[in-house]
Amino acid sequence: MDAEITLHVDGAEHRLTVDTRTTLLDALREHLEIISPKKGCDHGQCGACTVLLDGRRANSCLALAVAHDGTEIVTAGGLAENGDLHPMQRSFIEHDGFQCGYCTPGQIVSAVGMLEEVRAGWPSHVTEDLNVEEIVLDDDEIRERMSGNLCRCAAYANIVPAIREGSER
Amino acid sequence: MSTTTRTTGGAIGASLDRIDGPQKVTGTAPYAYEHHVDNPLYLFPIRSEIARGRVTGIDASAAEALPGMVTVITHENAPQLADTSDRELAILQSDEVAFRGQYIGAVIAETFEVARHAAGLVEVSYDEEPHEAELRENDSDLYTPEQLNAGFPTDTEEGDVDEAFSSAAVTLDERYTTPMEHNNPMEPHTTIALWETGNLTLYESTQGAHPVQRTVAQVFGLDRNRVRVVAPYVGGGFGSKGLPHANTILAALAARMIEGRPVKFALTRQQMFTGVGYRTPTIQRIQLGADEEGHLTAIDHDVIEQTSKIKEFAEQTAVATRSLYATQSRRTTHRLAALDVPVPSWMRAPGEAPGMYALEAAMDEMAIACNLDPIEFRIRNEPEIDAETGLPYSSRNLVACLREGAKRFGWKDRDPSPRARQEGRWLVGTGVASSTYPVFRLPGSRATIRYEGDGRYAVEIGAADIGTGAWTALIQISADAIGVSIEDINLRIGDTTFPFASVAGGSSGITVWGSAIFEAARVFRERHGENPSEGDEVQARTPDNPETENYAMHAFGAYFVEARVDVDTCEVRVPRMAGVFAVGRIINAKTARSQFIGGMTMGLSMALHEESLVDGRFGHVVNHDFAEYHIPTNADVGTMDISWIDEDDPYVNPMGSKGIGEIGIVGSAAAVANAVHHATGVRVRDLPITPDKLLR
To answer: Which residue is closest to A153 within chain B, CA to CA?
Structure first.
């Protein structure tokens, strides 16, 4: 069964017809040829497909496109405005927070979404005081909050300082 | 940096950002599945549900009735392959099934959703035969392979090991095992295949465009120039993408049946656990003998591992043991069990990684038995020459790595007694291990240098960047080789349109591709001088290195690890690791550091996390996804202190570099295991070290 939906991706509106079984990830990649979100596991286990879905980070491989008609989606491609890289993207390059680059768009979108969660006061597993007004984003908080994004090249030791500095810009 | 400055060096060694960084952080660098093609079809494979036997019937009627279906391909209708000698690649050529998960067909449809749905509707019946899918130490059919991977001899023996062992003052005789592991690059193995007028184009996720071209051309009986392989960006490989596997053949077979339309095939993560290679499980026995002063007198390293009945892969597990330490007598052996399983293959440092886990864990145990500090014990057994070849080393700075690492890590006042330090809930320990990896030199790579006017030079070579940073390092090498600045280089790689490049494997890429570029630059200047005309061009091949006759060439390193083990749950945490390397000249300090971090983290993973569990009744890997096959997450990794010794090796190659892609994983698992023993007093000899094995 097909359905017609509208997706707002990186500031552009797209009308498309999708099989109701099509994931949001495949709608972006195969229908719209927006390749920033990557397919790493198709299972919601690796985070390579992370996008901002109405402002919150989400695994687009676990979302059905038809269920997200009318949503605002931001991919790593959309974080760079007019060709200027987002501060988080520049920080990932400076700290070499990647090697093969396949998990990288997901890492960066996840980091940007994660910073909003911290600003909103959401605690994590390693937050000592659940009632604290302002969460301090130390390295352990970054490690914990970024553990939904796997990196087989294992750039983690560079991703942490990349996010620390990227969050300060 | 000015674009007009001509430098005579200085690009090699700079800490440059990756030149492909902007494309990678925006996600716009196209990986294999992401190249634009018109009107693609989608392939979903049909895989055997038995481990051995024959396909007796395939009913695809329900699948074929689905709207959007194009065709079902099986052994009954598949095109015949020209060369079926490689039985891993000779798929859909008969009804025979050699392992569970083997490709027995594929569905091709207009959309991915239909293809996947249809594949599930295909009914297959089998005539099942008994199978054996698990490695057993007491397998009566163990055999001796003719040689090992990379051409190493199967067995070696020097001196009288048995005599030396029986007369040694201190002895060790232990058994170590390492599990099956799967490479699992983040980008799955992926192909887009397109046949047009007898020519095949493959957008391929591979560590070597030209090796894929050669293999596919041979299997399909085509001239090489009719096969083009494109791979500008590759999402990791760690060896699994080093050789073409059956998935590439399946995509090409399907595309041949539907000329003119591209066929897209990406493995699911679960399918990545069958048929794209894996690290063989190993069962290793190590015997060490030493005199009263802690000088080794006997080393014996005997390995049992598995291969597939359809194709032999014999991992060189004990090869590093042949040269790392001095001894009067030494023996190494390798025995294989041929099973009804997929073909094992390369996984980051095949041989060295599991072999050096066992040797370096045994060295830790032996140091304790000799009542020596593990660093001092290793230094005491430092050899003067390479025992395997009898040659001196072109450079060998293992001792410097151990001493420098001890200083950086704070080893000096370490209390050697195990289970002697506790901080709150955590038992704390530290461990050390050595590392080594040979300088491989694969033949045949070529580079073209062409003057394109305006001070700019094109450098073309079909090399692959699988995340290693080759895009950046080869520009640095080109700039110094030609004598211009990096802005003046137009590098083109990752395509068989460019000159032949050997595989990005064995940590050999920079050695051979860089040497070809240096040679091309030398010949270019010889022929065209300092003021060439636009279009002047030279192609040159990686020259032979006569110094390989005079020197043994190896990289070295040392690791230091702090492990903390929860006193009740036995959860292991590793808050810090240090690695010191002696690897010749570093081409790019920034990307090199990332390679070391990546390798060491994979060693941490090998020590604590990774294990593919086979259900012997059915012959498949049960934990076939990232929820159950564990690799480190961000929260599993602590501080990584990376450094290297300034090493000037004039013999290895024009860059003076030794290759760094694999050494980071070699021995790092042992350093973690040794730290866990120091923390807990429990010696786990079967990787991975999971909490259940520490509970006593």
So the answer is: B598
Percent of chain B's residues with pLDDT above 90: 98
- In which residue ranges of chain A is CATH 1.10.150.120 found? 87-167
pLDDT of B361 reads 98
> Residue B6's pLDDT is what?
36
Q: Yes or no: is domain A2-78 CATH 3.90.79.10?
A: no
Q: Compute the distance between CA of residue A97 and CA of residue A104 in angstroms, rounded to an integer.
A: 8
pLDDT of residue B5: 35
What string of DSSP letters covers B143-158? B--SB-GGG-BS-EEE
In the beta sheet, which residues pair with residue B486? none
The yes-or-no verdict on residue B218 having pLDDT over 60 is: yes
User: What is the average per-residue pLDDT within A37-66?
Assistant: 97
| B41 CA: distance to closest CA in chain A (Å) | 11
Q: Average pLDDT of B211-239?
A: 98
Q: Write down which residue in B227, B244, B268 finishes a domain.
A: B268
Catalytic positions of B, written as ranges: 662
Give the chain B residue nearest A149 (alpha carbons).
Answer: B633
| Residues B576, B679 within the same domain | yes
How buried is residue B294: exposed, middle or buried, by Cβ count under 10 Å (0-12/13-18/19+)? buried
Q: What pLDDT, on a 0 to 100 scale, did the predictor assign at position B509? A: 97
Q: What angle do the packed helices B246-257 and B209-220 form, to 10 degrees?
A: 60
CA B526/CA B505 separation, integer angstroms: 32
CATH assignment at residue B229: 3.30.365.10
User: Cβ of A157 under 8 Å from any chain B Cβ?
Assistant: yes
The whole-angstrom separation of Cα A122 and Cα A104 is 24
Question: CA B39 → CA A65, B258, B262, B282, B622, distances in Å?
Answer: 21, 12, 7, 46, 36
Closest-CA residue of chain B to A20: B113
Q: Are B339 and B307 in contact (CB under 8 A)?
A: yes
Q: Do A45 and B627 touch (CB under 8 A)?
A: yes
Res. B526 pLDDT band, cuts 50 70 90? very high
The amino acid at B210: H
The strand pairing partners of B175, in sequence order, are B285
* Crossing angle (nearest 10°) for helices B352-369 and B589-608: 70
Q: Is the pLDDT of residue B267 over 70?
A: yes
Three-class secondary structure of residue A64 per DSSP: strand
Amino acid at the residue B234:
V
Mean pLDDT value across residues B295-304: 98
Taking CB atoms and an 8 Å cutoff, what residues of chain A touch B595? 99
pLDDT higher than threshold 60 for residue B435 = yes
| Whether pLDDT at B515 is above 90 | yes
Read off φ and ψ for residue B335, nearest 5 degrees.
-125, 145
User: Residue B456 corresponds to which tokens in the numbers above?
Assistant: 């700019």
Cβ within 8 Å, pair B113-A19: yes
Beta carbons of A100 and B29 less than 8 Å apart: no
Q: What pLDDT does B275 receive?
A: 94
**pLDDT score of B1:** 31
* Chain centre to alpha carbon of residue B46: 28
CA distance B247 to B267: 8
- Rounded CA-CA distance B559/B541 in Å is 37
Helix, coil or strand: residue B95: coil
* Contact of B190 with B35, CB cutoff 8 Å: no
Judged by CB atoms closer than 8 Å, whether chains meet at B626 and A45 is answered as: yes
Out of B268, B293, B315, a domain closes at B268
Task: Write out the two tokens for B182.
Answer: 């799967």
Considering only CB atoms, B21 lies closest to which of A35, A40, A93, namely A93
Q: Read off the pLDDT of each residue in B398-423 and give the average, rounded to a whole number.
A: 97
Co-location of B302 and B328 in the same domain: yes
Comparing CA positions, the residue from B610, B587, B609, B583 lying closest to residue B664 is B583
Instruction: Give a yes or no: residue B11 inside a domain.
Output: no
Tokens of A82: 């007019």
